[in-house]
């Protein structure tokens, strides 16, 4: 029996590539380089399914290219803002993602950034490696305490909740969640205060952490105007997507000190980072490694495989997004 052709756009953990080869006629990535629009159009034309990931521009134009053979896109990642899911649905292409299995590791990375920004870890590390550290002194590299402070969570989904738990239980922070769907009772059960007005939340927190997906409604959610309403001295963390913040306005706010520091794992035009952001000592920057543990990345890949298996067996796919 001929096996479905599955093109994989990037290298995946060994255990995942092994599964893909065992079950499908898998066309794996040899060089781990993005396929680009032409490569993606070719993959859609030559395969029954594509395993895509962040940064693969599966736009309406690419999806509409003919000939097209693919009937399924298994996104490796919980976010799928690189895919025009409306166009995919209209063309009858099933799209799945990999939620849940990366939640804990992404929440850990969020706390990593929160602590690093609060304690000026990047600045200290740079100074030490640059040979400029002159030794312990009482007023050197002073940051701010995290315990007892107010953390605003913007988007109280899987990762937002996992961050809230860590902040409350691990660091004794008071958590306020901005959510469109959380009820006051559910907020109480989760140990957080509920704030339904985003501007009010921005004006009352010591720390703010973003956990909304990138959608037409959230690009950007933190507009220049909303950044103006952030309480001066607040520390901002973003492990969601770069384009949910107006990056230029954020840079200005970091320069002026309105936003005291930022911990960023994601950027508006990854992997391009504005030189002005790179130059800011109060920005802790990571290369989009929120889910980068072998455990999460393997589980994400195996979930993508489970979605492919279900699709080609004619069963309901576990993680349908479009
Ligand atoms: P999730 O469980 O779906 O949570 C997202 C929450 O955002 C939802 O519960 C929803 O809450 C809120 N939301 C959705 N659409 C919104 C809109 N248009 N406006 C305002 N709020 C909206 O997703 P998750 O698993 O926590 O992941 C969140 C995001 O994190 C992903 O989409 C991805 O972009 C990012 N991520 C990044 C990394 C990384 O490596 N840095 C890793 C994993 C995920 P309400 O409906 O209650 O408002
Ligand atoms: C990572 O950013 C993801 O969305 O899975």
Can you describe what's shown?
With 322 residues, this protein is of the alpha/beta class. It has two domains: 5-101 and 294-312, NAD(P)-binding Rossmann-like Domain (Rossmann fold, 3-Layer(aba) Sandwich); 103-133 and 142-285, 3-Layer(aba) Sandwich (Rossmann fold). It is 37% helix and 16% strand. It is built from 13 helices and twelve strands. The chain has helices at residues 14-23, 36-46, 60-63, 85-90, 103-118, 121-129, 158-171, 184-189, 198-202, 224-228, 247-256, 275-278, 294-312; strands at 5-8, 25-27, 49-53, 72-76, 94-96, 150-154, 174-178, 193-195, 207-210, 234-238, 259-264, 283-285. The strands form two sheets. A seven-stranded parallel β-sheet has the order 8-7-6-9-10-11-12. It has a five-stranded parallel β-sheet with strand order 2-1-3-4-5, sandwiched between helices. Helix 4 (85-90) links the parallel strand 4 and strand 5 (94-96). Helix 1 (14-23) runs parallel beside helix 13 (294-312) and helix 5 crosses helix 7. The longest helix has 19 residues, at 294-312. It is globular, with a radius of gyration of 21 Å. The mean pLDDT is 98. The structure holds NADP nicotinamide-adenine-dinucleotide phosphate and glyoxylic acid. NADP nicotinamide-adenine-dinucleotide phosphate is lined by residues 78-79, 99, 102-103, 106, 155-160, 179-182, 211-215, 217-218, 239-241, 265-266, 288, 290-291. Glyoxylic acid binds next to loops.
């Amino acid at each position: 029996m001929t096996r479905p052709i599955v093109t994989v756009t990037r290298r995946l953990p060994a255990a995942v590539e092994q599964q893909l080869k065992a079950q499908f006629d898998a066309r794996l990535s040899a060089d781990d380089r993005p396929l680009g629009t032409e490569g993606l159009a070719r993959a859609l034309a030559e395969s029954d399914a594509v395993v895509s990931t962040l940064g693969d521009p599966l736009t309406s134009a690419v999806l509409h290219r003919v000939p097209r053979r693919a009937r399924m896109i298994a996104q490796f990642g919980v976010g799928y803002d690189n895919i025009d899911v409306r166009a995919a649905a209209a063309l009858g292409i099933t799209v799945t993602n990999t939620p849940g299995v990366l939640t804990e590791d992404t929440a850990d990375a969020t706390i990593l950034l929160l602590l690093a920004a609060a304690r000026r870890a990047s600045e200290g590390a740079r100074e030490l490696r640059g040979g400029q550290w002159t030794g312990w002194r009482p007023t050197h590299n002073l940051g701010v305490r995290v315990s007892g402070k107010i953390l605003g969570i913007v988007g109280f989904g899987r990762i937002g909740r996992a961050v809230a738990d860590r902040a409350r239980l691990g660091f004794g922070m008071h958590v306020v969640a901005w959510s469109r769907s959380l009820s006051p009772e559910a907020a109480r059960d989760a140990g957080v205060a509920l704030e339904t007005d985003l501007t009010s939340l921005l004006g009352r927190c010591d720390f703010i952490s973003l956990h909304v997906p990138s959608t037409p409604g959230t690009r950007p959610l933190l507009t220049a105007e909303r950044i103006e309403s952030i309480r001066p001295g607040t520390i901002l963390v973003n492990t969601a997507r770069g384009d949910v913040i107006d990056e230029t306005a954020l840079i200005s706010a970091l320069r002026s000190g309105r936003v005291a520091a930022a911990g960023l794992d994601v950027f508006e035009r990854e992997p391009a980072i504005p030189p002005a952001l790179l130059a800011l000592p109060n920005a802790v920057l990571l290369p989009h490694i929120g889910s980068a543990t072998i455990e999460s990345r393997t589980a994400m890949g195996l979930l993508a495989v489970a979605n492919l298996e279900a699709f080609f067996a004619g069963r309901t796919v576990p993680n349908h997004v479009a």
